[in-house]
Design brief:
The complex is a heterodimer of chains A (424) and B (160). With 424 residues, chain A is of the alpha/beta class. Chain A folds into two domains: 266 residues, Aconitase, domain 3 (2-Layer Sandwich), CATH 3.30.499; 146 residues, Aconitase, domain 3 (2-Layer Sandwich). Chain A contains 14 helices and 18 strands. In chain A, the strands form five sheets. Chain A has a five-stranded parallel β-sheet with strand order 4-3-2-5-6. In chain A, strands 16-15-14-17-18 form a five-stranded parallel β-sheet, with helices on one face. Chain B is of the alpha/beta class and 160 residues long. Chain B has one domain: Aconitase, domain 4 (Alpha-Beta Barrel). Helix content of chain B is 29%, strand content 20%. Chain B has seven helices and seven strands, in the order βαααβαβαβαβββα. Classes of the chains: A alpha/beta (424), B alpha/beta (160). At the A-B interface, α2, α3 and α5 of A face α5 of B.
């Protein structure tokens, strides 16, 4: 009667079974740091060294991997120095999987986690970033942690978790063509609120999810963070096996929930009833149907981030932008180099550039308001990213509307928030 | 613990306003403190004194996993945040890094405590005294493991 999350946590803590509320120390299979959390972890190491602790190795360098994503290309001297710190760290500790900016494959950590099959079904995966939840779409327990906790994992290979309650979201039937997984997860967050899944797991299933591509499932789990969830998860199926096999991985130990698995609550959604949804400033729960916002005039459209710049996100944008031109400043940043290359091979980049869009390198920069195109005071942006808190993408008095790549691209064409069905 | 209250009467105070994104590249704790709460309250840094408490609504610290958020508050002098509830990563960062105490209070205490009130927090008795209003509130006791980690002085000092 255990669900997939309980079974993974039981296995990782050496117990036969666990129940929601139990506090367990679990063995970690994979851990990730990036150019923000990595230097943060190193600061924790320094603090510990000052107290006399000797830190000259990590528990298992083969289970650690590193991304450069938030401040690449280096935004300034401090960011450049952080990349140097990260490079020295991976060299010193013998960590081989370091995806470096400017050296082949690199990109946003959560995108690499699936593009590079860094995490496998049944594993416990933690990362120094709140959207670590994303990778749960592969059938792993994936949760974000802070610097101290990641430092602890790096030295001990384990960490404590309270076994979460699971909310099950059952999606019946396919989404219509003009609706994307982004619309569905915005709708769900609007319904349950930004703390609606606090400390809990959000599991997605039903025919709507089994019909969904792996990339779409990753959009669902990615934004579970915005509902306060500890993790998001989908049971692995043939699509996951095929996705991993295409990346050269066939050996792993899948975990599935029991037939009589228990959930705290089951929510049902009819796929065919879904509509394009937009979250207004300043919260991802502030959702309305896109058509209600058709009078909102925009300054910028942004198609990027771990949430909204996977290959199918770019394909969706290209479907809209083909043969059209943008009316407002528009940027498209594929989430990883491998996706950038596929977009080139498929001719998507030409479509974007013909439309007048700037195509840029993978980075978290604009999504977190750090660099690479931040918003001015009073500027209004439609974005395929995941957060729209005050100041998230720039000036504290700028505004971000969260939307699917289809809605963002349609809005780029008209300069106003636009349901893709209403595009002439 | 004694100190005075800086109250933000709102829910969902997120890590983007506690410590805005552009400062994520900074890992100097004292410098981070100068940017604490910048997205919500530009005067926070001038106003905060060592030992102060923040009082806020539900889901405090939602958003990113940045440990910069509890670090910036801690190095500003904040000893505890008293809120209706906390987002999970902020909560465990505060406890595991021993930066500050995330204390859950109930609706009546939240309503009753005013900005600038003087409080005395006693975690072993799960009690908060409002010295200004001469009242006593109950705080939600820490779960067992959390209590042990706090007592040890952070996760690295805790022996499972």
């Amino acid at each position: 009667m255990l669900n997939i999350t309980e079974k993974i946590l039981a296995r990782a803590s050496g117990k036969k079974e666990v129940s929601p509320g139990d506090v367990v120390f679990v063995n970690v299979d994979k851990v990730m740091v990036h150019d923000v959390s990595g230097p943060g972890v190193l600061a924790v190491f320094e603090k510990l060294r000052k107290k006399g602790m000797v830190i000259d190795k990590v528990w298992n360098p083969d289970k650690v991997w590193v991304a450069e994503d938030h401040f690449v290309p280096a935004a300034d001297k401090i960011s450049a120095q952080n990349i140097v710190l990260l490079t020295n760290f991976t060299k010193q500790f013998g960590i081989k999987k370091h995806f470096k900016y400017g050296m082949g494959q690199y990109g946003i950590c959560h995108t690499l986690s699936h593009e590079e099959a860094m995490v496998l079904p049944g594993e416990v995966y933690v990362g120094g970033d709140s959207h670590t939840n994303t990778t749960g779409a592969l059938g792993a327990f994936a949760a974000g942690l802070g610097h101290t906790d990641v430092a602890y994992v790096l030295l001990n290979g384990k960490i404590w978790f309270k076994v979460p309650e699971t909310l099950f979201f059952k999606i019946n039937g396919k989404l219509p063509d003009h609706v994307m997984a982004k619309d569905l997860i915005l709708k769900i967050i609007g319904d349950i609120g930004t703390d609606g899944a606090a400390y809990k797991t959000m599991q997605f299933g039903g025919t709507g999810v089994s019909e969904m591509s792996v990339e779409s499932r990753l959009t669902l789990t990615n934004m579970t963070t915005e509902a306060g969830a500890k993790s998001g998860i989908v049971e692995p199926d043939q699509k996951i096996r095929d996705y991993l096999a295409a990346r050269g991985v066939t050996r792993y130990d899948e975990v599935h929930g029991d037939a009589d698995a228990q959930y705290e609550k089951i929510y049902e959604y009819e796929g065919s009833e879904m509509e394009p949804i937009v979250a207004k400033p300043f919260s991802p729960e502030n959702t309305v149907v896109a058509r209600d916002l058709s009078s909102v005039e925009l300054d910028k459209a942004y198609i990027g981030s771990c949430t909204g710049a996977k290959l199918e996100d770019l394909q969706a944008a290209a479907k809209i932008l083909k043969g059209r031109t943008v009316k407002i400043r528009t940027e498209i940043l594929p989430a990883a180099m491998s996706i950038f290359r596929k977009a080139m091979d498929e001719g998507l980049l030409k479509i974007f550039m013909d439309a007048g869009v700037v195509v840029g390198p993978p980075t978290c920069g604009a999504c977190c308001g750090a660099h690479m195109g931040v918003l001015a005071k009073d500027e209004i942006c439609i974005s395929t990213t995941n957060r729209n808190f005050p100041g998230r993408m720039g000036h504290v008095e700028s505004q971000t509307y969260l939307a699917s790549p289809l809605v963002a691209a349609a809005s780029a064409v008209t300069g106003k928030i636009t349901d893709p069905r209403d595009l002439k | 613990m004694k100190g005075s209250v800086i109250k933000y009467e709102r829910d969902n105070i997120d890590t983007d306003v506690i410590l805005p994104g552009p400062y994520l590249k900074i890992h100097d704790y004292a410098e981070l403190a100068t940017h604490a709460m910048e997205g919500l309250d530009k005067d926070f840094h001038k106003r905060v004194k060592p030992g102060d408490f923040i009082v806020a609504g539900k889901n405090f610290g939602c958003g990113s996993s940045r440990e910069h958020a509890p670090i910036a508050l801690s190095y500003s002098g904040i000893k505890a945040v008293l809120a209706l509830s906390f987002a999970r990563i902020f909560y465990r960062n505060a406890v595991d890094g021993a930066f500050l105490l995330p204390i859950e209070i109930d609706e009546s205490a939240y309503k009753d405590i005013s900005d600038s009130d003087s409080l005395e927090v006693n975690i072993s008795a799960n009690e908060i005294k409002n010295l200004t209003k001469n009242k006593v509130y109950k705080m939600k006791p820490f779960p067992e493991l959390i209590g042990k980690i706090i007592e040890a002085g952070g996760l690295f000092n805790y022996k499972p």
